[in-house]
Structures are given as C-alpha cells and as structure tokens.
Amino acid sequence: MRSQAPPSAPSGGLEGIAEFDFGRAARRGYPEAVLCEGKTMDHLVAIARAVGDRSSSNGHEPLGTILFTRASPDQAEAVCRELPGAVHDPVARMVAWPGPAPEPSGGTVLVLCAGTADIPVAREAWLTAQHLGRPAELVVDVGVAGLHRVLARVDQIAAASAIVVVAGMDGALASVVAGLASAPVVGVPTSVGYGAALDGLAPLLSMLNACAPGVAVVNIDNGYGAGHLAAQIAASG
Amino acid sequence: MRSQAPPSAPSGGLEGIAEFDFGRAARRGYPEAVLCEGKTMDHLVAIARAVGDRSSSNGHEPLGTILFTRASPDQAEAVCRELPGAVHDPVARMVAWPGPAPEPSGGTVLVLCAGTADIPVAREAWLTAQHLGRPAELVVDVGVAGLHRVLARVDQIAAASAIVVVAGMDGALASVVAGLASAPVVGVPTSVGYGAALDGLAPLLSMLNACAPGVAVVNIDNGYGAGHLAAQIAASG
Amino acid sequence: MRSQAPPSAPSGGLEGIAEFDFGRAARRGYPEAVLCEGKTMDHLVAIARAVGDRSSSNGHEPLGTILFTRASPDQAEAVCRELPGAVHDPVARMVAWPGPAPEPSGGTVLVLCAGTADIPVAREAWLTAQHLGRPAELVVDVGVAGLHRVLARVDQIAAASAIVVVAGMDGALASVVAGLASAPVVGVPTSVGYGAALDGLAPLLSMLNACAPGVAVVNIDNGYGAGHLAAQIAASG
Amino acid sequence: MRSQAPPSAPSGGLEGIAEFDFGRAARRGYPEAVLCEGKTMDHLVAIARAVGDRSSSNGHEPLGTILFTRASPDQAEAVCRELPGAVHDPVARMVAWPGPAPEPSGGTVLVLCAGTADIPVAREAWLTAQHLGRPAELVVDVGVAGLHRVLARVDQIAAASAIVVVAGMDGALASVVAGLASAPVVGVPTSVGYGAALDGLAPLLSMLNACAPGVAVVNIDNGYGAGHLAAQIAASG
Amino acid sequence: MRSQAPPSAPSGGLEGIAEFDFGRAARRGYPEAVLCEGKTMDHLVAIARAVGDRSSSNGHEPLGTILFTRASPDQAEAVCRELPGAVHDPVARMVAWPGPAPEPSGGTVLVLCAGTADIPVAREAWLTAQHLGRPAELVVDVGVAGLHRVLARVDQIAAASAIVVVAGMDGALASVVAGLASAPVVGVPTSVGYGAALDGLAPLLSMLNACAPGVAVVNIDNGYGAGHLAAQIAASG
Amino acid sequence: MRSQAPPSAPSGGLEGIAEFDFGRAARRGYPEAVLCEGKTMDHLVAIARAVGDRSSSNGHEPLGTILFTRASPDQAEAVCRELPGAVHDPVARMVAWPGPAPEPSGGTVLVLCAGTADIPVAREAWLTAQHLGRPAELVVDVGVAGLHRVLARVDQIAAASAIVVVAGMDGALASVVAGLASAPVVGVPTSVGYGAALDGLAPLLSMLNACAPGVAVVNIDNGYGAGHLAAQIAASG
Amino acid sequence: MRSQAPPSAPSGGLEGIAEFDFGRAARRGYPEAVLCEGKTMDHLVAIARAVGDRSSSNGHEPLGTILFTRASPDQAEAVCRELPGAVHDPVARMVAWPGPAPEPSGGTVLVLCAGTADIPVAREAWLTAQHLGRPAELVVDVGVAGLHRVLARVDQIAAASAIVVVAGMDGALASVVAGLASAPVVGVPTSVGYGAALDGLAPLLSMLNACAPGVAVVNIDNGYGAGHLAAQIAASG
Amino acid sequence: MRSQAPPSAPSGGLEGIAEFDFGRAARRGYPEAVLCEGKTMDHLVAIARAVGDRSSSNGHEPLGTILFTRASPDQAEAVCRELPGAVHDPVARMVAWPGPAPEPSGGTVLVLCAGTADIPVAREAWLTAQHLGRPAELVVDVGVAGLHRVLARVDQIAAASAIVVVAGMDGALASVVAGLASAPVVGVPTSVGYGAALDGLAPLLSMLNACAPGVAVVNIDNGYGAGHLAAQIAASG
Lengths: 237, 237, 237, 237, 237, 237, 237, 237
Prior knowledge:
Radius of gyration of chain A: 19 Å
Helix content of chain A: 25-40%
Number of helices of chain A: 9
CATH class of the largest domain in chain A: Alpha Beta
CATH architecture of the largest domain in chain A: 3-Layer(aba) Sandwich
Largest interface: A-B, 35 and 35 residues
Number of strands of chain A: 10
Oligomer: homooctamer
Structural class of chain A: alpha/beta
Low-confidence stretches of chain A: 5-12
Mean pLDDT of chain A: 92
Largest sheet of chain A: 5 strands, parallel
Distance between the termini of chain A: 61 Å
Strand content of chain A: 15-25%
C-alpha cells in the first residue's frame, strides 16, 4: 500500500490548500475569517502559518484581527501554537489573533440571548463585534417566558445602534425585541432545543416571519455572521 | 356513455356515505361535528338530512348542537336549507344547528388572536366553545410587535380557565401568553403569512417549541379543535 | 495560548449565566424548571447552587419543587450534589428537588404509553404531574396493534381529568383514546421508531391530524411539557 | 406567427405519443391502465382510439378491461366517445372499457374507508379490484374516532383475502385493522385534511410506521394501485 | 338561514377588527404598516378609515406615512377611496398615504435585483426605503450569469450605506455583492423560478449560507421588510 | 442522591414494562415480534424471560417462533442467554426462538436486493419469511445499473408468489421487477446511500411512485415488515 | 387615486426592465434565452422588441437564435407579434426566433421520455438542442414498466453523443439508460405524477441517486436547460 | 447461543455477496467502481479478491482501473492488502487499482472548488477523471466571496472541455463559472457548512436553480460521479 502524496504545500505557501483573501480588509473594511470546522488539521495549520508569515513580511497593508471560528479544542490549540499572542475563548469556540480587541469606535452592539444554552453563540457574536471594532454588550437569559426580564432592558435596547438576538426553540425574542427597538435587529436562531426544533429550523422560520419589521436573520448558530453584520451596521453608529 | 349509479342511499339512511357517530355525545360529552370541506354536496346534504331525521324521531338521546365546519358558502346554504333554525357565521365558515348556543356553564374560554387576518380561525374557536357550553371571550389583534396590547389583557388572562391563542407568522404570542397565565394554553397556528411561513408550518413549529410550558398545539387553522379542547378543559372551570 | 476568562460568576450569583425566573410560581402557579440538555456543567451547577441558596435565604416565597429535566447521568449527579435531598429518576432522566412530591390535589392525570420504548417519556410526564401536585397513574404498552389492551382501560380513561398519550411510530393511540374519552388528551409524539418515523415527525403529524377532536400536541419527547399541561388541566379536576 | 406542427400521429398509430404496452396482460396477468391526468386531450383520444383499434383487429390476444384513471369529466366523456360500451364512475373518476366487470374469481377484496371524504379513492380501489376479476366489498366511514364502527366489521375483516384501508388525516385506521386481520393490508393515504395533513403526507408517514406488521402503502390517493395490488394478492384467495 | 352578525365595528372604531399600533412611530421611529393580503375587504376598509380619522383628529402625534403592502388591485382601489391623496404602485402592489415620500435623509439605500421577474419585490423595497425617509436607488437585472453587469456597479455599491439584494433561483447575487461591499447586505429571496426553486426556499437557503459575511435575510418576497431594515441601517448613514 | 426505584417488575411478570400480545398468533396467525431497538436492557431481558416462562407453562396455545429484531450484539447475546435454543443472525441483527424455522408451506417468497450494502435488510426479510413458514429465496446485487443481472432472474420472478425488493439510492429495482412480475411486489427502501438519498427517503419516494402497478412499500430498512407481509401474501400461494 | 408611473422605458431601451446579455453568444457560444414565466406582459414585450431592434441594427455580432421559454399562449402570441418569423411550439411552450433551426453540426442528442405526459418537457429539450445546432432525436413513452421498450432502443442509445432522459414519478429510466450507455446522461425530472411525487421531487431525488454513474440532473421540468447542456456536450460529437 | 452461518462465499466467488458487473467496461467504456461505504469488511474483502482473481485469470477482457470510493482508512488498508499495487489517496478516501492512471486522452477536465473544506470531494473528482483517462487540473479555494480568484482563472476555464464545480454553503460558484464558460459544468454540492446548509441541500438546490444554463448536478459530495461524467463529456474533447 502506497499512500499518494497530499496536495503539495510549497514553503510557507498555500498552493493546493487555500487562496487566502488578504485583500479583503482593504476592499470591504473587515478581514477574512477562517472557519475551522471541516478543515483538516494540516490545512488549518498551513493557513495559520501563512497568516503569520504574511503579517511579519513587509510591504503589505496590516491584516487586522484574524478570527478562527468554530474551532475544536485541538484546532484552537494548534492555531494558538502557530500564532503566538492569539487568544482562545473556549465557550465561543473562537481564536482571535492578535488577541486584544482594537479600540472601540462607532455605535454600541447589544447582544441579547434567550437562554443559558444560547450563550456560546451569543458570545461568538459579542466577541466578533468587539474584534471588528465596536463597543459591545452581552445580556443573557431574557427569554419571553418571563417577559419582565426583557422589559427591564428597554433603555439598553433604546441605546444600541445594532441589536443581535440569539434564541433557539420558538425564536420569539426576535419579534418582541424588534417591536421595542428603533435599531436594526439581527436574529440568530440556535440549534438549542430538540424534536420539532429541528436543529434550529423552528426558530429560523419563526424569525424569518417576525411580525415586527426590522429583523433579518443569519444562519443557525452563526454568531460570527451576526456579530460581523452588527459591527457593519453600527460602524457609523 | 353510461354513468354508473352513485353509492346507494336508502330512504333517510346514510348507507355507503357515512356512519354518523350519534352516540358520541353520550360517550364523550360532546356530539360529532361535520367537516364540510372535501365532501361532495350530495354526501353533505344526505348527512344534514339524517341529522334532522334523527333529531325528530323518538327514542334517542338528544343530539346536542351539531356544528358544520369549514363550510363554503354553497355548502352552508345547503345545510341551512335542510336544517331550519341553523345559523351560519360566514367569517368562521361555520353552521350551527340548532342556532342558539346552550346556556353557558363552567369556566371562561378566552380566545386571543394575533392579527386581523387570524379572525376567521379565532371566531371558529370562540363559537365552538360557546356551542359546547362555555362562556367565551374574543380579543383580536394583540400580536407581540406591540407588546402593550397583550399586557393590557393580563387580568383577562388571569381570569380565564382555558386560553386559545391564534397566530400565524412567528406564532410568538403563544409563548408570551403562556408565560403570563396559569391556565392551559391551546395554540392554533394559522396559515396567515407567506413565503417562509410555509402555509402555517412556521407558527406550528414555533408553538410546539414554546419556551414557556403549558402550551399544546392543534392543527393549522383548526379553530374548531381548539375551541373543543378549550371547552373540555374549562368544563370543571 | 491564553484562555480568555469564562463569563464571570460572582459568589452565589448567576450573572452572565442565567436570570432564573424565581417569580414564576407566584405568577403562574408552577415554578420554573431547568432543562439540563445543552447547558455546560459549570452553568448547570451554578444554577442548582443558586436555587439552593434562594431557598435557604429568608424573605422569599417558597419556590415549590424544582425539576431538572433531560439530565444526563453526570448532570444528574452534579445537581444532586448541590441539592441534598434531590431525587433522580434515571429512566425519566429527571431530578426533583425537594424529592418527595407534594400532597396530591385536583383530578387524576392518566398517562398512557403505546410501547415499552416510550416509557422514559411517559415516566417524565407522570412524575411531572405528581411533582406539580396531581394524583397520577401510568399505564404502559397499550398500543393499537392489540386493541384489547386499551379497551381494557376504558373505566380508567373515563375517570381521568386529563389524559397524556405517549406514542411513537404511527401515533395512532391518541386518536383512539380521544374517541373514547371525555377528558382532554395531550399527545406526546416520541422519537421511537426509525426510517420514515423521521425522529418523531410521523407521530407528531399523525397526532396533529387526530380524527377525534379533543387532542392537542406538545413537542416530540416532551414528557415534561405534557405532564405540566395535564397538571394545569386537572387542577380544578 | 406560425405554429409548429404537433407530434405526427399516423393513421390509427401512436407514434410520437405513446408506446402502449399491449403485451402487459400476457406478461403480468393484468393489462396496462391509462392515467388520464397530465395528458393532453389529443394524446388521450389517440390512445383511446388505438385501444379500440387493437381490440377490433384480428390476431391479438384479448386486451382485458382497460381502465382510464383520474379522468376529468371532459376526459371521461372523450374516452367514452371513442370506446362505445365504456362505463364512467364520476365519483371514482374512472372509465372502464368494456364496462361490465369480469366474472369474479379468487378471494374477496375488502375496502375500508375512514371518512366520507375518502369515498372517491375507496371507490377507485373497489372498482379496480372488481375489473381485475375479484369479488370486492366497500365499507365507508369507519374511522377510529368511533371505534365501535370498525369493531362491528371484525367478521368481514376475518373473511377477506386482501384488505385495502383508505384514510386521510392520522391514517390510524391502517394500524387498527392490521392488528385485527390475518390478511395483508394495503394502506392508501388520502389527501383529505388540511394544514399539517400536508396533502396526505401525514397519513402516508403514519401508515409507513404502522405499529402492527402486515401493512404496506401505496401513493397518496392511489386507489387504482391499491385495488390492483389487492387483486393480485387475492388472486389465489 | 340567518347569518350571524359580523364582529361589531362601532362608528370609526376598530373593535373586534384591529388594535392599530398608533404609537409605533413614536416608539420605534417608523409607523405600523398594513399587510393587506389575508384581510377581508371589510376589515381593510375599516382600518384605512381609522387611519384617516386618527390623522384628522387633534392631539395626536403625526402618524408618518402609512404603507399598505401586498394589496390586490381591488384592495388598493378601496384603500385609495378611503384615503384621498394615497398613491398606488401596481407593480409593487403598494399604497402609500400620504403619497409623496418625505424629504430624504441619512445614507443611500441601494436595491439590486437579479432578474426582470424580481422587479415587483425590488420596487417594494425601493419604495419602502423612500417612504421611510432615505434616498434610494434601484438597479435591475444584474444576475451573476453575466457577471460584467454587477461588476459595472462597483462604485455604486461602494457608495451605499445599505444594500438590498433581491434574487430568486440560486440567490447567488447576495454572496457576490457582499464580497464586494463594505455596507451591510439585506438579502430578499424571491419566489421567482420553478421546480426545485421550491417557491423561494432555494434562494432563501442559499442566502442564509452566503459564503461572504455581512448578509442577513428576510422572508421570501418580503420587499417591505428589506426596505424597512435598510432604512433603519442607513438612518445614521 | 437517592435513585428512585425503577418500574416494579413482579416475579416473572411484565407490569410497568410491557403487555405482551400473547394472543396475536391465535388472532392474526403470526405471533408478536420484539423490536429490540430503543428498549433498555432491563426491559428487553424481562420480556425475553416472560416469553420463555409463558412457553414453558401449561394451558396456553403455542406461541410460534418469536423474533427479536434490530438487536445490537449485546441485546442479542442477552436474549440468547434467556432463551436457550435461540439463533442469532448477526448480519440481519435478528434472534429467532426457537431457532429452527418451521416446515415451509404456501408459495415461495423471493427476496431481491439491489446492492451488497442492502444485504442486512434483505436477510432480515428472507429470514422472517422463513420463520413465518414460507419457502424463501434470496438473490443479491441485481441493481438496474447492469440490467442483465435482473433479466437473468425472470424465471425465478415468474415462479414466486410474493416478491420483496430491497434497494437504496434510486430504488429503481422495484419498478423494473414489478414490470416483469405477476406476483405482488413489496418494496423496502434502505438507508444505503448518502447526501440526497436522505437516509432512505429517496428510494422510499421512488418506490411509492413506481410507474408499474403492483408495488406497495414498507418503512425504510424494514426487512421484518416486508418479510411478514410477503409471508401473508404467499400463505395461500 | 393616482397610479405611480411604471419603470421608465426609453425608446427601444430596456432601462429599469432588463439588461440583456447580448454578449453571451460571443462569450459562451450560445445566446441568452428569455424565461417568460413570471414576467409581466409589458416587460416581456419590451425585451422582445429590444431583441428585434438589436438584430436589425448594424455593427453587432449576430445574436443567434433567441428562445423564449415557458411561454403562456398569450405571451407567445405577443412575442410572435414583435418578432416576425418567430415559430411557436405550443406543446413545448417555446418560441424561437428566427424560426428555422440552424444547420446541425456535432454529435446527436437523443431525448428519451418515460411517459406521454412527459412530452412537453421532452419536446422543449429536443427543440432547444436543435436550435443550438445539434441533430436531435425524440423517443417517447419508453418507461421501465415495460422494459422491452427501452431495450429496443439500445442501438440508438449507443449512437448518441449526449442523452437526455425525461421522467416523472420514480425517475427510474435515468438509471436504466445510464447503465446501457457510454454517452453522458442528463436527467430531467418532471412534475408528472401526484401525491408523493411531490411535484417532481421524487424523480429529482431518484435521479440524483442514480445507481449508475454518468448521470447529472437539471431542475424539475427544465427541458430547456437539459437541451442546452446536451448541445454543449455533443458539440464536439 | 449459536450464530447462524453468514452467506456462503464459495472459493474465490461472490455468491450471496455481489454480482460484479465485469462487463461494464466493454458495455459502457468505463469499469464498475466499488462504493465501500455501507459494506461490511467481509463483503468488501471478498469483492477486492474477486477483482484480483478475475484480473489474473485468462480469457477475459482487461478490467481497466477499478476505483474503491468513500473508503474508511481500515477499508482502504484491507483493499490494498488484497490488491498489491493499489494506491490510496486518504484525502479523497479513494483506492485505485492498478495505481497509475492511464495515459491521458481527450479534452481537459477542470475541477474548481470553492473552499478548503471542499478539497476531499474535489480531489475525488480530479482523481476519478484521471483514472478514467483524461488530463485533469485542480484549482482550490476560488469561492465567490473574493471574485478576483475565479476571474483570474478565465483562460483556464475557457480551455477546459468539461468543468466540475465543487462547492458547499451557497453553491454560488456553479452559476458564476457557467456564466463564463462554454464547456458543460457539472456541479457537486458538498456537505460543507452547518445549520441551514442542511448537510448540502442548500448548495444542491442552489445549483439546480443556477441562473446560467449549462449546469447539471450530481449527488451531494459525489466527487466520483462528477469526475466520471466529466471524463465522459471530455472523451471526444
């Protein structure tokens, strides 16, 4: 049995593995992130190394903070080994490099989550917004089964420039918050729940049908996407 | 071309058409209803006639009020022709015979509906509960996009023995009401909405995943079933 | 590699983790339960501890029995360690604290389950009803493939104030029981089965389309929700 | 604007339209049927004419009864015009040619249907079995909401060689009948119902998950297929 | 046959019909809109009249522009009759009252649509953004099958404060535009297409999985919701 | 931590665990089988023991062969320990007790399977038919990608009284075989395949839409159900 | 009531309506087609006119044949009025301009269709291949229920350079043909069928899971797409 | 406990296991491949051995390269043990025997993949095309989020005879590439992504609705099928 050679990876390069979009920060204002899930360890390490090499070489624009999302513990450890100074948030499954978030600017991003089990996704949104440069706040467990909890946050809701609502099961919090807010609401359905929650399809559909206008929705469990969009919305805050 | 004879219908009988469950009121406490949708006019008329015949013949227990549900205007007119004294509610698409609801007993059934377009289904539930013998109240357009509307009904919610929540789109009202109520909540998702509302599947899933316990769900647009169940729940009110 | 600090948990508090709805028993008559599934061990332990602390502190209304549902063996053990006197039912995957159910009042809740594999969900419903204060009975393996089994229970069905039917596969038991009963029926579809059972969607749809009125449905495998609703229905029994 | 010529149809032939499987009766024991739905009037008339021509020409084996299924009134009339002696059953939407069913042989096919709205599909199955040569019986409106109705038919069920169960909504009748019968049960889910009946998917799934063995299922509303299969099963009665 | 009286509608009031959220403009900054689809003509007319009455009575804050969305031609005509000065856009199926859009402020909303058949939805978004106070631009038929069409708009894309992408079928335009833009992108999947487009579910799923971050999605064909959200995003432009 | 006692199991009895349908063989001609999947080890062992006890006690009709289906290796071993003389087929995941199949009678059951990966399900059908008393034949890997394979079996197909077709992926074999056969065809879709095979939904739908009449379908991977039905069909062979 | 002006359409131009990809023939070898379905009559007529204008103006490359697909009779008539010399095939719902197909070149495209009701889609594929320059053959009604029909075409199959298989229901013909052919097979599932055919999803899934390699699939009923692809495949014959 | 004997496997034969289609290369031009997934180790080893035996015996046509697809590491090792000279590509999960690809002929197959996580499927397509005799090129990570990446490949796209596009999530690359190419595009949706990617259904639907003609689609993750089809298309290059 001979094993065929894996895709060649020339010194420091990414040929046959990836074509990192190093120009994205210049083009769009925010750098490319790396979705760790689904990548082999070899490929991920090669990408992390290329990011580090690019950053330390001359003549390029600064990359900004590179986020590694949905990282397993092993993946996170491997990335942190390649990129000294990276910070790992195990609850959010995210690695940020360099670790410290930039000085915040723009309006505030408010992340509200319906239940304790939604915290990982909510943290991912909250950290993303911070790493993309916004002041951000996180409020947990304000689901509509006890309406007083969200009503107690009305002032915080009114002050935000962009709101992220993270909820599984019935996803009802998105409609309720949008009905109270003047800022745009980004809904993040989560896979929290079981049975007819259908791995997050139930809150996804619920949020897409929010009876209050001013809600748009990202993929199930996509805290990164919501934080990114909220940071864009709040940029001119 | 010869047309084969339709199923034979002996004088006054229903052979080959239906086997009406005349014993249901004795057995379950509530009589059988007739779902008009999907029945041919011939079959429906034969059933209405058999109901009238049975009622006027001796030696049987009283039938109670017979409801004809989801009746098209033509079907309603035909039923009313067979059963003098029947009353037709065109919004609810329901015919009741005899027309007047019985004297109410038991606890109050409260029907809350989220939007104006949900009124037909809500009325069906409200009328059913009345015809099955309960005092019933109907409150419309209290969707969560303007939360003050349902919060203004907290006392009414507290006083009810059974609550029916009728909502399409996000179906969020069921969770919000259950979070405020001690009485059981029967959720009725409606086909109001479009696109990802999926003809009522979105609020159905949302209500099945209500984050507040105390909610159970009936079929999409099934106002009759909800009113029936609420009447049973409130019986000992 | 530095690990970012997890959400801060001040002494005895739940900040950043949960906002327990301690007022629910006063507001709704039944206390909040804790869905263990999907929560990290840290978060779950913090919640259990806060429940214990609240209970032993002065000046609050009594909490009532707190149920921890869908608990893995590890989670159950951890909760029991925090809350001495708690009782764990491993089949139902439920921990109750305090352990003994209150003195029963109201009408009887009858839980019927179609097959042996439905027992875990049926027990969850049965125990919930007891812990919320109702007398409750459990009857197993009375699926419609051998109709004599459910027909032998007609008297028990007639005597109940609320009936929970737990069934997977075809979910046919709900329609059959509702056709025999005057009490409301709460259907609980289960994920028992394979292939076209679609993890419980088949019995869910079947029960939503029950040809006998008087059935409402909760989420797949949601024994807790069914027991809660049945306890509410039977309260004035 | 010139209209391109339609597919050529040589005198009496079917070129470019169909390739009728005239050998099927010899090969399989039962002749090919014609599904009218979806065919243009021109194509259908050409097929009916070819059937007539084939039958009146010499040197071929007899065709047996040709059934035209799911025929609209217009289609039925056109077929009957081409094939004198054909008989149209408007409820079953079927045309049979020649009209009289053959002398029955083999065991009895029993068709049971759950509700009045299922009669069209049940009749299609019942007529098909007769035209394929079996003695056949039709029993209507014996849904499980009133179990006494099907229990009154136990002897008829025991005497049948093949049973067809036609039901919409919960489809529960299939499981109940199979639990009582020694003969094979062919389930026909119907599109009767609304909302979560999903145009017949709910009873389809329910029947596929019948908790009693001895049930197999055909397509939604496919009375023809069920009658065909039942005739095959009962052939050696 | 007596027809039961419809829900009472006291002079000028909306009791039993609607509970218009007149405070929404004050609370959220944008007034409530009226979804015409699914409402009876009587109910719709009553709502339009109440809007007119409220506006002409003293002592209330100004309502702002009231939009009537998804209006059939008959509905549009009826609304215009009640509200002199209203303007109807038949392609967008929208009525605005008062007709003229307010003086634009904030950043520019850019609406891009993939094909000619998407124009009705795109116009709905474009008009909504204008009526809620933003400068807005509409670009049609720039689908990715001819990539040069969208690449010719790069400057326009760079100048926008909020972008709405309207596309059916593969929904690919959302990803492509987001990859070029720094402004947030609101995706509107449309029901344009057939077969596996599944009435808009295909582009809905495609947009939810946009490989470029910065996209959030509203309901299928929901041009109003997209225009509303884009107006909120561009408010501080 | 105290563990609540599991459901009580009186000596030799099944109370709280199961209500075995010992009368099924007398009523239906075939005994009840035990679906192992989803049962706890304790419950399964108690059922096996009760079967053994019943069999060795006097005054009962003979049970016939009891089949334990979808048994994991551990479950199979436990059942065999309780029931000496039982035989385990690990490929079919089935235990039969007593082990030897009865003397065959009736017509032949022919099981055809499309691919090698379908063999476990095909064997389950083949063994079930044998244990229910029919002569049975098994033919593997005759999928339609190489049509000569099934065409070589035309004589075997013509000789069978009942045919079971086991196929995953496109499920096309069912239509092809039915087009060649006069005997009824029972289709068993399997979960073999990946992606758009949707765990067996693709061949399930394909078989339900078989263009040749004479096919009915059982649940995905339900070899037991297919073998049972085929044995019933071939009984009078 | 004032009606807002529709999107402006400058003389002969398409501004606000479409941005016709006149360069596609040069870029891809085949011109853009016009999907009529979903376009307003005004928009369609404007596009047809622009096509005519472009063709008669100087200095452009020739457009090639422009196909208008899925045209209703009214739409077809309107297009033909704008473009003298256009030819309409009402069965295929297609208008071609100019009418005569170009001189054929390349290999032969063979279109096989399973049933008579599939002819409209099959004709659309067959005409498209001809108008894009290939010799093309059409064979109808060779479904696998009578396998001799397709086996009689083995030589024709062997001689083709590209094969289009058009089938509804079980879609089994695609696998069978691919198993016999060396040329690539393009599968076109059709919406022919009912119930579990799910408007063409059943054959779509079946073809995607074809057990014979060498099959790829286009959208349901997409005869145009299949003919286009087959013409590309057969180009170098 | 006695274990029943497994299906008999006569010396070197495959009876009861498989009926290898050794004639496929002669009939179709390409030999049968072996899908390892879902096969037991015993069955797979027997097949590999039979392939080896056939090859070394006289009087048969050469088999061509036999591919073993979707092989787990254990399966791959077992196959390589039976077939000396086989080569294993662990990323593509493929074993080829004999190892070296044949001398390339025909046109070039170009495989484009959208992201790094799509590489395993892309490699499977690329290797399959090579082993079936075509020159093949692989380009990775050219997703549309950075459009410059695919635009840089326009010449390579123009030179290809067949193009395979491998993409998960939005699947948008297929439409974009088809809009630029004259060669046929085979789309391979992948299960890369999460949540609403629905295990590859999202890109599958997106590609089926590609707004550019010239795309056909194979099963999710089916790199083998795409490579096979592309090799067929490019055969006459």
